[in-house]
Amino acid sequence: RMLGVWSLLLLWGLATPCQGLLETMGTLARIDKDELGKAIQNSLVGGPILQNVLGTVTSVNQGLLGSGGLLGGGGLLSYGGVFGTVKELSGLKIEEITLPKVSLKLLPGFGVQVSLHTKVGLHGSGPLGGLLQLVAEVNVSSRVALGVSARGTPLLILKRCSTLLGHISLLSGLLPAPLFAVVEQTLFKVLPGLLCPVVDSMLGVVNELLGSVLSLVPLGALGSVEFSLATLPLISNQYIELDINPIVKSVAGDIIDFPKPPKPIKVPPKEDHTSQVTVPLYLFNTVFGLLQTNGALDIDITPELVPSNVPLTTTDLAALVPEALGKLPPGQQLLLSLRVKEAPTFTLQNKKATVSIPAAIHVLFYVPKKTPEALFELNGIMTLNAQLAPSATKLHISLSLERLRVKLASSFSQAFDASRLEEWLSNVIRAAYVPKLNVDVNVGIPLPKVLNVSFANAALEIIENAVVLTVAS
Fold first, then answer.
1. 381: alpha, beta or left, given left = phi > 0 and alpha = psi -120 to 50?
2. What are the residue boundaries of the Lipid-binding serum glycoprotein C-terminal domain, all occurrences included (predicted)?
3. What are the tens digits of pLDDT across the range 411-425?
4. DSSP label at 87?
5. The CATH number of the domain where 381 resides is what?
6. Which backbone phi and psi does 6 adopt, to 5 degrees?
7. DSSP symbol at 314
8. 239 FRET partner, CA 20 to 30 A, in 98, 342, 414, 455?
9. Helix and strand tally (H, E) in the chain?
């Protein structure tokens, strides 16, 4: 059935994860086995696909699966079922199953060994009359392969399943030894057909969660990011490793391709009972490249955009570079036209995140209702500190200006030392430009979604060319 749903199955790689090097430069996710165990256990409690197999969960607190479903009155083992062949036990049927306890072991080179421990309750009338109640302990052992679906998502598929019948307790009633043996033999034959479909349906629920890796994340007016698996998943003793490829597209649907760093990323080791996602540098550069090509980094700054304590008139400019004004009278309003014609450069190293934005700054003066006139043009480099903060779905960025360096490109009067303007321009940019930037970068850097693992409270580490988020399982 599962093979019919997925048209392609690729087995997991037979090697364990590489030793800390991310060769493909994608978004690396290392999901701890505890998270997979939680997803499987939770699928048994509330998974709609599982309920279709087992019937209605009547009491989650007690962990009992209702007698009105497949297991009880009129179900697989009720009157007319397999026990119908034994006249003395014709009324014996399965009334309840205790919510299974899940344990799993990762198998490098194959997949996962999933074990379920549960108890099956049987009720009926004994051969001598009176209520007959039995409880049988059952261990379900299954081998699950991990691979990639045709859609490019991680996939769990049941390869082998068996049941081991444990101790059978007689809670009430009388059951002669020969009939007790019949019950034991019948359960041994029937339980695999009953409980192994439970495992298959359970994996179906988890596969829906794994399918969320393949998602399209909007980037506001900029475009979108689509996540898919870049390579075959890898598996170690403690975690599964997914190399996820983020494809950035413009609003028009064009794929945005920015150069990737020439060296592989050295990913720090993952501690036990934690999950980890590594976000590569090029994803930051790609988002800022989209901002630049969309014109979101350009601005015209007029006196109305700055507070009164930030001067923006020829009088204030004359105090810094009088030679730049020529015979222009004081008291004229200034206009700063800032244009970013090249893509910014994001840097992640030495535990610090910065972005360098090259800009042409045209300084003009104007009289209201008249066309502004150019005074001079500067070539500037703005270096901004980037504070990074994770949420459940993305990395948020907050920028602050660290420094500004400018050189004179052209002047309509005489040449001057443009460095004398850096402090003044820095104040203008902090007041008018940085707040606009922070609104534009609110789109953030999207994070992949794997098994509902939330990185909202993750520890954040900036390494060379990447950001690593780590959260306890």
1. beta
2. 271-471
3. 988 899 999 999 999
4. G
5. 3.15.20.10
6. -105, 125
7. H
8. 98
9. 8, 25
